[in-house]
Amino acid sequence: MVHDMADEPLLESAASGHPSLGDRPEDDTLRNLVARLVREQPYAVLCTQGEGQPYGSLVALAVSDDLRSAVFATPITTRKYRLLCDCDHVALVIDSRSHSSVDMMQIEAVTATGRARQVSPGAEYEQEVNLLVARHPQLKLFVGSPTTALFHVDIIRYFHVTRFQEVRQWSLTRG
Amino acid sequence: MVSDPWVISINAASCDDEQVGGKAAQLARLHRAGFRIAPGFCVTVAAYEQFLRDTKLQLVVQMELGRKPFGELRWEELWDTALRIRNRFSVANVPLAVAQSISRAVRLLGPRTPVAVRSSAPGEDSAQRSFAGLHESFLHVVGEEAVLESVRLVWASLWSDAALLYRQELALNPLTSRMAVLIQEMRTEDRSGVAFGRDPRMDENDRAVIEAVPGPCSGLVDGSVDPDHWLMSRATRQVISFRSGLREDGEQAAPLLQQSDLESLLVVVDQVESRLGWCPDVEWTGRANRLTVLQARPITRAREDPNDKRSWYLTLRPDKQRLRQLGQRVAEQLIPELRELGDRLAAEDVEGLDDAQLADCIQTRQSLLEHWKRVYWDEFIPFAHGVRYLGMYYNDAVHPQDPYDFVGLLRGEDMLASQRNQLLRALAQQVQDSAALQRALQQAVHEPAAANDFEWEAWASQLPALAGGRQFLKNFQTLLCQFMDVAFGGLRLSDEPTTLLRNILELASQMRPPVAHAASDDEEAIRSLEQRLLDAVGAARHAEAREVMRLARLSWQLRDDDNLLVARLESQLLRAMQAAGNRLKAVERLNADAEVGMGAVAPICAALREPAQMPLSLLTFKPVDPRSTLRAPGEVPRQLVGQPAAHGLATGNVRVIRGPQDLGNFHAGEVLVCDAIQPMMTHLVPLAAAVVERRGGMLIHGAIIARELGIPCVNGVANVVDLLQDGEGVTVDGYLGIVTVGPAEFRLETG
Question: Is the dihedral of CA A113, A114, A118, A122 positive or negative?
Answer without folding.
Answer: negative
